[in-house]
Amino acid sequence: MRACGGISKEKEAQSRVRGATLLELLLVLVILAGSTFVLGVKLPGYLQGERLAQASTQLLEELRDARQAAMSENTWYQVRFFYEDKYYQILRGGTQARNVRLPDGVSFVTAPQDLQFNAAGIPNVGMTILLRTKSGEERKVIVAPVAGRIREE
Length: 153
Known about the structure:
There is one protein chain. By secondary structure, this protein is α+β, with helices and mostly antiparallel strands. The protein has one domain (21-152): minor pseudopilin epsh fold (3-Layer(bab) Sandwich). It is 44% helix and 27% strand. The protein has 2 helices and 8 strands, in the order H-H-E-E-E-E-E-E-E-E. The chain has a 4-stranded antiparallel beta sheet, with helices on one face. The chain has a 4-stranded antiparallel beta sheet with strand order 4-6-7-8, covered by helices on one side. The chain is rod-shaped, with a radius of gyration of 30 Å. 17% of the residues are buried.
């Protein structure tokens, strides 16, 4: 009789271990829902910030390249800004060299006039170019008027 009693206790112990309780399943679902919500809220803002950083760094590099090319090629370079279409155009001696489009969600805020570097690398004007995302995050690219120093803030 002892053998029978021992077997039924083993079966009873095994039947308790087989599945998860309703409480455990609800806990897992709550954790998954919370994670999904946090990613859904934070991820788009993070991506916009990355696009803004990319756009401002690219603009900074394009302006520096145009200035350096003007000095090395002994010619003038011009950068035209098209606000409505969200792109800028680089011209070498009056001939179009390339167009650069801003990433989605990034736009120009300030309205600087066209920028021109002479053969000595000196800009025709000093300016601050302000870029903004839809969420309001901003970055500046600043061109110093006399020295032609170009920096990002």
